[in-house]
Amino acid sequence: MERKTIKKFEALVGEDGVLSTPEDLAVYSYDGTFADRRPDLVLLPSSTEQVSRILELAFAEKMPVTARGMGSGLAAASVPSEGGIVLSSARMNRIIELDEENYMVLVEAGIVTADLQAAVEKRGLFYPPDPSSNRQSTIGGNIACNAGGPRCLKYGVTGDYVMGLTVVLPDGKILKTGGKTIKDVVGYDLTSLFTGSEGTLGIITEALLKLVAKPASVKTVRADFPRLDDASGTVTAILKRGIVPATIELMDETAIACIEESAHLGLPLDIEALLIIESDGFDERAVAREIETITKICRDHGAREVTLAGSEQERSRLWSARRAVSPSLARKAPNKLGEDITVPRSAIPETIRRIKQISSEHGLPIVVFGHAGDGNLHPNILFDLRNPDHRAKVDIIAGQIFKAALAVGGTLSGEHGVGTLKRSYVTEALGSISIDVQKRIKAALDPANIMNPGKVLPD
Amino acid sequence: MERKTIKKFEALVGEDGVLSTPEDLAVYSYDGTFADRRPDLVLLPSSTEQVSRILELAFAEKMPVTARGMGSGLAAASVPSEGGIVLSSARMNRIIELDEENYMVLVEAGIVTADLQAAVEKRGLFYPPDPSSNRQSTIGGNIACNAGGPRCLKYGVTGDYVMGLTVVLPDGKILKTGGKTIKDVVGYDLTSLFTGSEGTLGIITEALLKLVAKPASVKTVRADFPRLDDASGTVTAILKRGIVPATIELMDETAIACIEESAHLGLPLDIEALLIIESDGFDERAVAREIETITKICRDHGAREVTLAGSEQERSRLWSARRAVSPSLARKAPNKLGEDITVPRSAIPETIRRIKQISSEHGLPIVVFGHAGDGNLHPNILFDLRNPDHRAKVDIIAGQIFKAALAVGGTLSGEHGVGTLKRSYVTEALGSISIDVQKRIKAALDPANIMNPGKVLPD
């Protein structure tokens, strides 16, 4: 980038807010995927006003701008695939207002989700969305890809908590959406439009989030199912009883084998699936009764054993199986590609069967776990990037997994987003009419196509 | 309209699907407001395909098209304010699929909400959104204005149940959004964009709706508050305890007086407000305990008396006060204008005080009731349309109520929508940058401006 242009940005955000050495740029060139592209410049603004001034300039010079939280994304959405500016939210991590009366918090986009959660929990409040990355990822990033997490079964996804946004538009204008009103039907729902748009329509700088009261009681069980179909049937049976547990996490036999191989937790190796189910609430007796009912439903639907965590320590031990999944995959193979399909709940067994077939066809292990209550599965393909044969296969396998999801009425992503990784499958998933509508919206809001170009929508 | 054009439409929907006599047109010229404009033609398509063919033709001829459910709207959104075609969904009222495994139902837009609710409740399922109009209004209309209702405190509004839509675009193309996946982050959230867009972006012909299990137990209390502030403080206190009742309905002293005057239910006339609070769930003991806690919170926060409904009959009697509001207004004055502001919950007392001041300033009664848990208030201005003095004042009063809502951080509508009635206040509510973004979206999706022109956005 020309020195003259860099100087202009330095005038806006200060010299220490502009990074341009190759070493610095390298740090901002990747996310949680294998994608890698260096930006021309990294900017660290510290206010919405500065973001606005940056975009005015970028708009005038037609420079691509890619927003970045902490780079933990799993679809390459924050990798600047056409170069240009990376706009980091690292310096915008304040809680602006905690409104305890209305149960809302106004934050800057760069706050790390777990930091926000800890701050509101001190006041007896609760921000439920819990992406596994919550200790690294930011609220801005969570909103940009509408992140989920285990608790989303009961509590809903990130978008369900976004009451309003401050968004800097491509030309630098500052848009405010929503507000502290729970219900709002005035005009089009711009809050939802920007949520999940992966930085392609504007830069989210602030978010007003809804909070709930922190549940006082929580109970957890693990249920072992010799047959996968029974585990899936149990999920439906629980929900049909009107019980909505906080989480219903599923691990299939490949995940269980993987965990046992590395962590030796004593999980049974002769079952096809296990569920970890957690209930929470404010009435301890009601939560206890709910978990009893859940236990009974599990047993009635083919669970061989149901283990109730009697203490916080035992609860933590039950969850250790779920937490062990990712580390155990890393031990099993040098590389993994974690997918994020969602399917109608009833299609979980069929989907897992199809994935097993794909796995055996290509001779690469695919471990399946995920949020069964939501039908959101994470098939993880294990491979070795140094092996050219593996490399070629992984793309084919990912494509086949997407097709399997679409075939059963599902879609490509439940919480990771599209980024560049799933871009070539989007038209098949949504249809050309939907893509046309989305392109028209993109063109209307970002006519110069400077906002995270090359993402989400196909060319 | 030219006979030749009418013939073309008759070819599409059959002779009995085209209405053009003055008497027929008159029937389709109004909704629940005072607005009145005759369409040039009324069409009664019976399939998405027919709607698509109609729009192709309307698009070619640049004819305005206004979608209409049952005409119960309260913002004149379905009144064809620029003439043209009214597209009635009356013949599209089928349940296409009830998916009991995935708890979803696919319906045509013209189904009456209460009919859908009755059908799914027979199977132990539950569609929670409960606009007061649910015996007349259609799902399509509910979605078009993102309708709410008392139960939305716990269960969320119509939009929270819309999983996917079939929308006919202005040029006749058929767009499908969403699907049976609970989580979906592939592309922009078009489902939310069309929800609440009041027919200005396309015609919703089918909707895939999420269902929940029908709650087995329900308990209701009425709490009488000598002081309005205490009623409002009680709402916050309940929610802070982690309790989310199904409904918290508020009636202020003007509403109570009005009800008593016409219905003689024995309500106390020396209190400033009453709350009707309802808890529901699947665990009868937990619901009973929850209502006990609510009762205690009411008492601790200044309720003079809390009446628990011990039987279904008593419950119905408690609700009769709420149901009596609207009829009692009709007895009190020949005309009423029901507004629909929402404010942050904490601002309810301040808002009601401001409304009282407006009322006394103009010498017209304004009765306030609404969904206190959501901060959604319905100030009803009582007047006599034959009185020219009243007529002049009503518009001024409505404007002052909107300004009061905006001043405390609220907005113009929580569940009725904008239509033509609130159109002139939208810029003040949302800001010119938001309006500009919305206009760009409207222009991108409806370049010929044939979809319900003259609604929602200012010229």
Describe the structure.
Two copies of one chain form a homodimer. By secondary structure, the first copy, chain A, is an alpha+beta fold. Chain A folds into four domains: 3-88, Uridine Diphospho-n-acetylenolpyruvylglucosamine Reductase, domain 2 (2-Layer Sandwich); 95-213, Uridine Diphospho-n-acetylenolpyruvylglucosamine Reductase, domain 3 (2-Layer Sandwich); 217-326, Alpha-Beta Plaits, CATH 3.30.70.2190; 333-419, Alpha-Beta Plaits, CATH 3.30.70. Chain A has 15 helices and 19 strands. In chain A, strands 12, 13, 14, 15, 16, 17, 18 and 19 form an eight-stranded antiparallel sheet that branches. A five-stranded antiparallel sheet of chain A has the order 5-6-10-8-9. The first copy, chain A, has a four-stranded mixed sheet with strand order 1-2-4-3. In chain A, strand 5 and strand 6 (104-108) form a beta hairpin. In chain A, helix 9 (253-263) packs across helix 11 and helix 12 runs antiparallel to helix 13. Chain A is globular and about 70 Å long. The mean pLDDT of chain A is 96. Chains A and B meet through strand 9, helix 7, strand 11, helix 8 and helix 10 of A and strand 9, helix 7, strand 11, helix 8 and helix 10 of B.
